[in-house]
């Protein structure tokens, strides 16, 4: 009964107002559902021409819909969403017409194999820690930390696992020596007093599919703050030496003033600063320990 009501409600929800089609163009009106027939927001749609060139990419709206306005031709569509099997199909766009292919229902993907309980050592040679920030509010700058270590301790229940990463603050590298010297100085990271950054996460929270959240504490510049790593688990593999490896990507957004890094002071002294918000991204491989 409840599902039927939701389906009726969904059907009465108007799609975005349909603008007139450009002269000579047609449109595909797509609808994407989950396995029980409810609309899927945020599903990614890739449209490719006959030569395999991507001509459009977008995401479905809260009603699970997306309209693609295209030149008349045949197209191949791929619809993906984290935790679901990709769906592929072909569609024809006709000039002056709106084509509504059958609603696409995505099926759940099989869960990837989780790492075995025990200790896993982070492999710096096959991992990276990068950051992106604005340079005095203008262009983006990109950098990385070149030296770090850490590990995972996987529990019998994945939710009981923990992670620890320690970063050498002096290894910061933005590709510009003068800027890196400023970032290492007492005005910013103050590596002489605070030689390391450390993140410790005490639990893993499954968000569906391959997505996990790792809440934890970041120790930076003598200050400790709660930070959440949004993580995508990539699975298990075997290295060239026969060792078992696991991998993930993760990202977090930091606000410098949470860690008493004052950019106004740096600007007052004529030092080129980075913006108030910093995005940190990690590509991690870890090796199972005996």
UniProtKB/TrEMBL annotation:
It comes from the Bacteria. Transmembrane segments: none annotated. InterPro entries: CarboxyPept-like_regulatory, Lipid/polyisoprenoid-bd_YceI, TTHA0802/YceI-like_sf. Pfam families: CarboxypepD_reg (PF13620), YceI (PF04264). SMART domains: YceI (SM00867). Gene3D superfamilies: Carboxypeptidase-like, regulatory domain (2.60.40.1120), Lipid/polyisoprenoid-binding, YceI-like (2.40.128.110). Residues 119-287 form the Lipid/polyisoprenoid-binding YceI-like domain. Belongs to the UPF0312 family. PANTHER family: PROTEIN YCEI. This is YceI family protein. It comes from Streptomyces celluloflavus.
């Amino acid at each position: 009964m409840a599902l039927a009501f939701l389906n009726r409600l969904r059907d009465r929800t108007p799609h975005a107002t349909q603008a007139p089609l450009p002269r000579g163009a047609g449109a595909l009106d797509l609808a994407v559902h989950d396995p029980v027939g409810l609309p899927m927001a945020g599903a990614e749609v890739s449209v490719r021409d006959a030569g395999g060139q991507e001509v459009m990419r977008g995401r479905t709206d809260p009603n699970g819909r997306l309209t693609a306005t295209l030149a008349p031709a045949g197209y191949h569509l791929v619809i993906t969403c984290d935790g679901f099997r990709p769906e592929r199909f072909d569609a024809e766009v006709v000039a002056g017409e709106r084509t509504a292919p059958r609603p696409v229902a995505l099926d759940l993907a099989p869960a990837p194999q989780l790492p075995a309980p025990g200790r896993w050592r982070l492999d710096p040679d096959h991992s990276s820690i990068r950051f992106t920030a604005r340079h005095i509010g203008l262009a983006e700058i990109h950098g990385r930390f070149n030296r770090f270590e850490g590990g995972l301790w996987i529990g019998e229940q994945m939710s009981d696992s923990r992670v620890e990463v320690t970063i050498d603050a002096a290894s910061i590298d933005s590709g510009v020596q003068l800027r890196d010297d400023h970032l290492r100085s007492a005005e910013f990271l103050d590596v002489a007093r605070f030689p390391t950054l450390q993140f410790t996460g005490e639990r893993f929270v499954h968000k569906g599919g391959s997505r996990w959240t790792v809440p934890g504490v970041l120790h930076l510049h003598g200050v400790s703050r709660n930070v959440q790593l949004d993580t995508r688990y990539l699975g298990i593999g075997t290295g060239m030496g026969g060792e078992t490896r696991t991998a993930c990507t993760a990202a977090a957004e930091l606000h410098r003033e949470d860690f008493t890094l004052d950019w106004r002071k740096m600007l007052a002294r004529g030092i080129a600063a980075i913006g108030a918000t910093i995005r940190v991204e990690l590509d991690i491989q870890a090796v199972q320990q005996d």
